[in-house]
Amino acid sequence: MRNVVLAGAACLLVSWPAFADPLPPAQDAISQPVPDAMPNNVSYGTPIGLADANKLVASAIAGARKHDWRLACAVVEPTGALVSYQKMDDTQYASAEIAIAKARASAEYRRSLKAFADAIKAGNNGVLSLPGVIAVEGAMPIVKGGKIIGALGCSGAASNQDATVVYEALEEFK
Description:
The chain has 5 helices and 4 strands, in the order H-H-E-E-H-H-E-E-H. It is α+β, with helices and mostly antiparallel strands. Strands 2-1-4-3 form a 4-stranded antiparallel beta sheet. Helix 2 (50-67) packs across helix 5.
């Protein structure tokens, strides 16, 4: 019995290449033109500290109040770990987690979430298969001294309103 099983396994291994898909021709292996420079190639710096993170969140909350928008706002360090967070009264419950997820995706992918939203609009739905991607606006990296030290994410209003608050807070932070 043992020899029959071993013989069957050997036959399967020998015939495996017949079942495998052949490699695509070289011209089919790359779907788009290859740029010379790597996109979003900004180095990470020393993570944002609590005092600066709290200032950013306070600035974002003040901006939301100015517009009468109710938001949750989060600052994460480059690893995506939460540093500071506040949720305004009467903010939709889902936004509590979304603000953190937005900030985390922005920090980890070193880009504004608008880049993912724009990619989807352009038909690049493959972006949705990347782990942790949030394809709506509302988070941007925090850059200090030319290095990413974290990201600010907000959620609760329309995504372009969330992005407006983030942008204004980051401009004030500079």
